[in-house]
Design a protein that fits this description.
Layout (H helix, E strand, L loop, with lengths): L6 E4 L5 H10 L19 E6 L2 E9 L4 E9 L5 H22 L3 E3 L7 H9 L17
Parallel strand pairs: 4-5
Antiparallel strand pairs: 1-2, 2-3, 3-4
């Protein structure tokens, strides 16, 4: 697969099963008693795909003055070079969406277990501003 053949687009609700599969492969949000429904993605998610196969996704939370991007997930079976391109494409598109909304900046949380992502982000102009614990609470 050539990286120029990878496209990024706004996710559709029909992409929910593919996103759910990515979350399962990466062990994201796999809590014992939670059943998260990934079938309502519009309009806050982007997907990267190749030949109709979802390779990665990212959540885009537009807000002013600071927007957020979160839950970057990329298929772990991709080779290192393709993972790099999917990450780069998804984050660049997410930042562009936040910018079009009128935000002055964008923030994100990178889990410590993904130190290579943090290193890559710093190499492209992101600044580490703090660290802490990512927390989540069930509301449904």
């Amino acid at each position: 697969m050539r990286h120029r053949d990878i496209t990024v687009r706004m996710a559709k609700n029909d992409d929910g099963p593919a996103v759910a599969l990515l979350m399962e492969k990466l062990d994201f949000f796999q809590f014992d008693d939670w059943a998260i429904d990934w079938c309502d993605l519009e309009p806050n998610w982007l997907v990267a795909e190749h030949d109709g196969t979802v390779l990665g996704c990212i959540q885009v939370v537009p807000a002013k003055p600071i927007g957020r991007i979160e839950v970057l997930a990329v298929d772990p079976s991709l080779g290192l070079k393709n993972r790099y391109h999917v990450v780069r494409m998804l984050t660049e598109h997410a930042v562009a969406v936040i910018g079009m909304y009128g935000a002055q900046g964008v923030s994100s949380m990178i889990p410590r277990r993904y130190e290579t992502y943090l290193k890559g982000a710093k190499g492209t102009g992101w600044v580490e501003i703090d660290d802490g614990a990512m927390v989540m609470k069930r509301i449904v």
